[in-house]
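User: Second chain of the day. Same drill as before.
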Amino acid sequence: MSGRIVWPVPEPHLPSGVHPALADAALAAGDAFRAARQTYNRAQLAEEVQVGADGTPTMRLDIVVDTAIAEVVNRYRINLLSEELGSIDNGSAVTLVVDPVDGTANAAAGVPLSAFAGVIAVDGAPTQALTYWLDTGRCWHTIAGQPTPYRTSGRRQLDGAAVSLLRPQPHVADSWWRVATRAARIRILSTSCLEAMLVAEGSTDAFADAGSDTHRIMDLAAAMVTVPAAGGAVIDVHGRPLDIDPDLTRRWSGVVAATPQLAEELAQTIRGTQQ
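Assistant: Same format as last time:
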């Protein structure tokens, strides 16, 4: 074996009504992801080849997929906001906000938990979102203000909930443990965008960053459209507004939950302000 990941990468199952640029970006992401796996082994996919626009190291897999998406954006003459390439301004009112490969470490290792997540924003307002599970082709699509087939679990209380969390970093260990001791089940899947969609469709009750301020806006943008439409809520632990902003130094501790009540209880528990 060459160390390459041999599992096939299916085309996205795109529903009708997806914005053409968003659909083509997802298709380009899948094609680039597939080609990268065929070309590079695990170590090469995971190699840090540059520093991204958000100031964090960029793996080879990230830049290969992001470059393919940028070509789509330039073809449509819309703007791009991406954690790797940053902001590309084509003078359009329309911006594609994208996480090209959410869960890159999973993807490079061959763990089948990674996703493309994109949002079409018009004058800064998110209008539709698409999340594409790269290893299965499964897609979640939502248009703001329109009915969605997804429904959250409806859970209102943290006690007994199934919760996904970012890994327990030392400086937020107490917050992480406060959530873990109350939930019935804890998962660490390492793919925020995919975990948010599991909340939207009721497969799990909530997902959160336990106060580490790890999330960038592209980690949460698709959830901001899809989860509220399904009955849930997306907030920041500290109540900061979730804005589509080209300033990639901004960070959040996102909470994605089945209901606004559960979101607020999770945030209070993480802050240590629960009565």
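The longest helix spans residues 20-39.

User: Great, on to the next one.
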